[in-house]
Amino acid sequence: EPEVTQTPSHQVTQMGQEVILRCVPISNHLYFYWYRQILGQKVEFLVSFYNNEISEKSEIFDDQFSVERPDGSNFTLKIRSTKLEDSAMYFCASSLVTGRSTDTQYFGPGTRLTVL
Amino acid sequence: RKEVEQDPGPFNVPEGATVAFNCTYSNSASQSFFWYRQDCRKEPKLLMSVYSSGNEDGRFTAQLNRASQYISLLIRDSKLSDSATYLCVVESNAGNMLTFGGGTRLMVKP
To answer: What is the CA angle B19-A42-A85, rounded to 5?
Structure first.
C-alpha cells in the first residue's frame, strides 16, 4: 500500500536555527498538507498546498513558516528561526482530491522536532 | 466554544465490551466527518468516514446528526488492539482543512 514518508524522524535544533522537514507524498496525490501536534495536545492544521501554491493556512502558519515542492516528489516545511514553542510532532499528509468525504488524507509517520 | 469537542476519557473497558464515543462540532457548514485512530506517538490513521445515513465497518458503527452537530462511534466486541486514542475530525466546506478534536482515549483490558 502506498504511504507518505517523512524525514528525519527526529530533529533536534537550537532556538533561532532554521529547519527543513521533508515529506514524500503518495505519488498520484495532488493535495499536500502539514499539521502539527504539540505533546499532549490535539492535531492542528498548518497549511494546505495545491498546484504549487498555498490554498489555505492557519493562523499558526506565520511568516516564519514556508512550504515548497522543490521537485516532483518532495514537499517541504521550513521554519526560518525556530522557537521553543515550535517543539512538536509535524505530520505531512496528502490526498488525491479534496472536498469529498471519500477523499482521505493519508498521514506520514511524523517528524518530532525538539527546539532547545 | 471548541470547534470539535470530545470527552478525553480514558474509557477503561474489558475485552468484549461495547463502548461508545461522542463528539460535537461547532461549524454548521462542515461538510465531511471522520473518525481517525491514533496510537501513542504515531500518526493519525483513518478509521472510517461518517455519513448522514450512518455507516458500519465490521465492529465499528458511526453516526452523524447534522441537526445536533453530533457524531458518534460505537465499537462492539472490544479487542485489546482497539486500545488507542480516537479522534473526531471535521472537514470544513473550504475543502481541505481538517479540524481535530482532542481525542478520546480507550483502554481495553483483558
So the answer is: 155
* Contact yes or no for A56 and B94 at CB 8 A: yes
- Burial (Cβ within 10 Å: 0-12, 13-18, ≥19) of residue A112: middle
Q: What are the grid coordinates assigned to B40, written together?
A: 501513542
CA dist., res. A83 & res. A79, Å (int): 9
DSSP for B67-83 reads TTTEEEEEE-S--GGG-
Length reported for chain B: 110
Using DSSP's 3-state secondary structure scheme, residue A1 falls into coil
Q: Kindly report the nearest CA distance between residue A72 and chain B, in angstroms.
A: 21
pLDDT tens by residue, chain A, 116 residues:
789 999 999 999 999 999 999 999 999 898 999 999 999 999 999 999 988 899 889 999 999 999 999 887 899 999 999 999 999 999 999 998 755 544 788 999 999 999 99
Our CA angle for B42, A69, A42, nearest 5°, is 30
Tell me if chain A has a CB within 8 Å of the CB of B72.
no
Q: Does B50 touch chain A (CB under 8 A)?
A: yes
Q: Which three cell numbers stand for residue A82?
A: 525556530
Chain A to chain B Cβ contacts (< 8 Å): 62
Instruction: Give how far the C-alpha of residue A37 lies from the chain's centroid of Cα atoms, to the nearest Å.
Output: 11
Chain mean position to CA B14:
19
